[in-house]
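Mods, move this if it's the wrong board.
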Amino acid sequence: MSRRDELAERATDHALEHGLIGLSLRPLAAAMDTSDRMLIYHFGSKDELVAAVLSTSNDRSMAIISAMPPSASVAQAVIDLWDTFTAQQVQRCQRMYVEAAALGLFGREPYVSSVRDSNLVWIAAIAGHLAASGAAEQDAPRLATLVDATFNGLMLDRPLDGDAALRQVVEDLASALAR
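Not the wrong board. C-alpha cells:
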C-alpha cells in the first residue's frame, strides 16, 4: 500500500467517525499524526483528499455488497440488502455519502463528481446482487435505482421513525418488487 493510500484509509476512518462537514486539514492531520503539509503533498489539495476519502468509503461499501451471496429471491435480496445497508460498517459509509450528496446539491466539488461516480458503482453493485438473486438482467438496474432511492430516503427518516416502521417499508418494497 502506498503512503497516499495509507493516508486515504486513515483520513477515511477519521471522516467516518467525525463527518465531512467542517473537516479541516490541521485537526485531521493532527489526529493522523502527520502535518497538513504532508496531506497536501500527497493529495494536492483538500478537495482531492476529500475525493479520496469518499472513494475509499465507497470502495469499502462496495466490497461488502459485492461479497454478499445471492439471496433466495428478489424479495429476500431487498431485505438482505437492507440488513447490509443498515449494518454499522456500511451505515457509516452511507451517512458520509449523504453528507457529500447534500453538499453536492449546492454544486460544490468534489462532492458533485464523487457522488456521481459512487452512484454508478453503487447502483451496479445493487443491480448485480438483484440479478444474482433472480431479477431479470434488463430490470435489475431500474430495480436497483428504486431500492437505492428508498433506502436513502429511509436513512434520512431513520432518526425520526423507529426501525420497526422502516423495516415494514422495506418488506413492503420487497413484496412489491417480487410481483
